[in-house]
Amino acid sequence: xxxxxxxxxxxxxxxxxxxxxxxxxxxxxxxxxxxxxxxxxxxxxxxxxxxxxxxxxxxxxxxxxxxxxxxxxxxxxxxxxxxxxxxxxxxxxxxxxxxxxxxxxxxxxxxxxxxxxxxxxxxxxxxxxxxxxxxxxxxxxxxxxxxxxxxxxxxxxxxxxxxxxxxxxxxxxxxxxxxxxxxxxxxxxxxxxxxxxxxxxxxxxxxxxxxxxxxxxxxxxxxxxxx
Length: 227
Known about the structure:
Blueprint: E1 14-18, H1 25-32, E2 44-45, E3 48-49, H2 55-60, E4 63-66, H3 70-74, H4 81-85, H5 87-91, H6 101-114, H7 131-142, E5 149-153, H8 161-176, E6 180-184, H9 188-194, E7 197-202, E8 205-210, H10 216-224
Parallel strand pairs: 1-6, 1-7, 4-5, 5-6
Antiparallel strand pairs: 2-3, 7-8
Helix pairs in contact: 7-8
């Protein structure tokens, strides 16, 4: 559960969320994605109250989510690459009769090549991709020029050094476009490298806020409640 969490992510800012797993990070992401209902409080996006707004409308307003579990929450492993990529179109609420599969396959192919996804055909199942390429597929779907806020939950978990650097660069480029980024990670090195500001979650609340240069001792103390 969340306990009086107050958090602001500015345009062109990467805010990192540190904390031992199980301290409310997943609930925070689910609340922002409207996968759970808030009993109190508000969620604002660009100043608009979206607390009761469904995910499809939140996406239309610019919210993007890179989920904790890419193979469970982010992809349908048995579905094709283009169907997974096109989920962003379906989530915007476009009527099925207006969807042109041939056009979407072409758009998907162009996007995946731009993101350096290694694949044979857009009709192959998403489950056939390596972990790094599966994550790039999600990034190609979620990180776009229309995004105003990206929630990135453990975006580099299980990735090699090259794929990790690719993800970091994508988030930095989104920041340069004026997009806000909420980065939730259990990797303090990652958070220290890429975050403009860092908050620590403990027992569902914000237990500390830090700005560079980050000190491991201070952040660690906040994570354990000793700060």
